[in-house]
Structures are given as C-alpha cells and as structure tokens.
Write a sequence for this structure.
C-alpha cells in the first residue's frame, strides 16, 4: 500500500512541477511582451498628451495579451513609471486596447505617482 501511495505522490509532484514550469514560462512571456510593447509605445511616440497622457492601441496579432485587464494595467503602470523615470512631468495615463472578438475597447487608467519626500517645515 505504501508503494502505491508513494508512486502516486511522485506522479503528483512531477505533474505539479511541470505545471509550475509552464506557468513560469507564460509569466515570462507576458512580462516580455509588456516591456516590448511599452518601449515601442514610448519610442514611436504613440502616447498623446494633454491634461493626461493616453494611448489607443489597435488590435494586432501580437497584442492579444492586452485584451486581459491585468496585463493591460501592467502595461499602463510600466509606461507611466518609465515616463516618470525619464524626468517627464507626472500625469495620469489612460490606455485603451481594441478587443476584436467582442468588438469593444478595454480601458485602463493609472494615476501618475509623485515622489513624496519628508520635508521639515521651519516655524
């Protein structure tokens, strides 16, 4: 009986490890796409500016990742942080991605993050 349970447990662990490795590969792929697309948006000047920054992404074969809310918000945070690190004025950022399968747009907005410093006020 112990031998049967031991072999089942080893099978479970092996499958669990394979699933974990697949999940890690998917996460790496998503993160690479976020960085590549974010850099492309900044380099190509696709970010419009006014009282806030915004981008409209058309549907393309490589942008299927960005039809997911979490991935689109990661992209928005990446672009916002990258612009902030390039010493640009801090503004809110709105990004919308076309979802062809539903004939809609997915919209995500992030606030610009100001750097807060501790200042001592003299009286």
């Amino acid at each position: 009986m112990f031998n049967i349970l031991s072999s089942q447990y080893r099978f479970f662990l092996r499958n669990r490890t394979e699933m974990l490795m697949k999940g890690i590969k998917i996460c790496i792929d998503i993160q690479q796409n976020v960085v590549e697309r974010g850099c492309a948006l900044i380099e190509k000047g696709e970010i419009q500016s006014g009282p806030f920054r915004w981008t409209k992404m058309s549907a393309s074969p490589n942008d299927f990742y960005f039809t997911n809310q979490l991935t689109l918000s990661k992209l928005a945070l990446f672009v916002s942080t990258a612009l902030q690190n390039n010493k640009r004025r801090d503004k809110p950022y709105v990004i919308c991605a076309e979802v062809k399968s539903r004939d809609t747009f997915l919209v995500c907005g992030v606030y610009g993050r100001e750097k807060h410093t501790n200042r001592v006020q003299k009286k």
